[in-house]
TrEMBL record:
The chain crosses the membrane at residues 12-43, 49-70, 91-111, 117-135, 142-161, 167-189. Keywords: Membrane, Transmembrane, Transmembrane helix. InterPro entries: Biofilm_reg_signaling, GGDEF_dom, Nucleotide_cyclase, Rev_trsase/Diguanyl_cyclase. Gene3D superfamilies: 3.30.70.270. This is GGDEF domain-containing protein. It comes from the Bacteria.
Amino acid sequence: MLRTRRRESDRAYVALVDLLYTSLKTVSVIALASGAVGAIIAIRTGDPWMWVLAALATVIGVARCAKIFAYDLLVRPTPKTPQTAARWERWYEVGSYVFAGLLGIMVARALSFDDAYGHMLGVGMIMCYASGLAARTSVRPRISLITGGLLLAPFVIAALARLDPYYAAAAAFIGFYFFSYVEFVRFVYGTLRTSLDNREALERLTRTDPLTGLANRLALDEALAEDAASGQPASVLCFDLDRFKAVNDTMGHAAGDELLRQVAARVGGLVGPRDLLARQGGDEFVVLRRGPEDPRALGEAIVEALAHPFVLPGGRAEIGASVGIAAAPTPEAPARLLVAQADAALYTAKAEGRGRVCGWPPRSATRDEAPAETATAAA
């Protein structure tokens, strides 16, 4: 059995299952071929059981085609969770095992008769299917290998049971073929995994602040848009550091960079697992607070946490922070409007003496007033 060397990410898993359901043409062809080959062998041998096996294989094959078509129509165009992907993978897995087992039994049954033409047709059918199977199902190695075993093992057993050296040689050939089949599956799966992992790593880099390891502005914008579209309750907290420029000027930029990393670590310990902490640039940070919880408590916790001294390469530094808060926009409102409102509340907090938490609209403004940033975001 092929073992994966590292666990797949949820995103990679969903993508691989999606690829599994691109085999409609292959499954359609083998469904028709299995019925035709089974019927020819049944006619030549007069075996009623071969008719039954051919009919079952055709029915299962058509059912698999219908399932793949349903996936293409209903599931592929929509966002998928790992749970959804797992459910569809199980459907594919069961159908693949049953169909391959039926074909294997059909060929083994054909070998119980002295009909060389039937043997040739049966072996040709399973070899053609095995080749397509390896190419199409290598994205899920377990399914590919078990299906291949169910398809080929009955022929090997039936060929050896004939006690004929030529059939024994054919059985050995199939065994060697299965070894190359396993290696092919390993190669294809490994190549796909490497490609998907590299793509995910690149996407993480484009959405990550290199200094702090937090989400960057692009990742924040995407998260805001997703939350606005979902209509789930959320709020935004904008905060920046008081006296950050003084730290840079007196201790150097290396100390300033270390300060930003320590701020990210402190605030990161305060936010929830569903929340998103992002750095917009400079000493400006944003927290996307998901859920109906009051964001003011988190804002006050941030102010308190950042009021404690920081130990930096150039000595100790005491800074502080001011926080602005805004509630989630409606799905019709621009997602960036929320950040603009929180940013306006932040400037009000700083104007009132720093080290404060201020919500939008601030006490000095009415709900009909909008800051310049808000107007820009809405434009």
